[in-house]
Write a structure and sequence with these properties.
Number of helices: 6
Shape: rod-shaped
Oligomer: single chain
Length: 195
């Protein structure tokens, strides 16, 4: 091998960085942990509570269920009195019972407790032991009120809001409102107003 070529190879070796030290051996657990993608933020714990209008209304100072029940009974008696032809008590009692049954079914939310559950999947409202579940994607907006929050499928305020969502009662005075509102803000992405 000619002399200039030997010098060139020797100079190349001197310029080259030394070989890297072998990586320390990793355990199987360390390799598995390195292969996993970064974990998501820990899910929020589920919130669940019950709203009883007979208990929670007294706490606010307004006797909603007793007043509503008295007005309902009065309306049914007046309607039955006008429908009874001969003012026979049996007929009056029958029409009052029919009117009370229909009215109670329509106004049941004023008298009976409701259970709520907010979790990572969505909202569950249980009324008369019948659960109604909606995923978070179902809701597009929410409106905060003094006694609760209205979840709606409409992106903007609409006359249909009352028919297209859930009104969740806060109930109780244990700081439930302060827990519910941030939970909703984390799960329902409000859409920007159009225009």
């Amino acid at each position: 091998m000619p002399q200039p070529r030997k010098k060139a190879l020797q100079q190349q070796r001197e310029k080259a960085p030394p070989p890297a030290a072998p990586a320390p051996a990793q355990s199987v657990e360390q390799q598995a942990a390195a292969a996993k993608p970064a974990a998501k933020a820990a899910p929020q714990p589920a919130l669940s509570w019950s709203y009883n209008p007979w208990v929670d209304s007294r706490a606010r100072g307004w006797k909603r269920p007793p007043v509503a029940l008295a007005l309902l009974l009065l309306c049914c008696l007046i309607a039955a009195w006008s429908l009874a032809e001969r003012r026979v008590w049996q007929e009056l009692l029958a029409w009052t019972s029919v009117g009370m049954a229909i009215s109670m079914a329509m106004c049941a939310a004023l008298f009976l407790p409701v259970q709520y559950r907010l979790d990572e999947k969505g909202v569950t409202v249980s009324f008369l032991l019948v659960p109604s579940f909606r995923p978070w994607e179902h809701y597009r907006n929410y409106y905060v009120h003094d006694t609760g929050v209205h979840l709606t499928t409409m992106p903007q305020p609409s006359p249909l809001d009352a028919f297209r969502g859930h009104f969740i009662q806060y109930g109780g005075g244990d700081g439930r409102r302060e827990k519910i509102e941030p939970y909703l803000a984390a799960h329902i992405k409000k859409e920007a107003p159009a225009g």
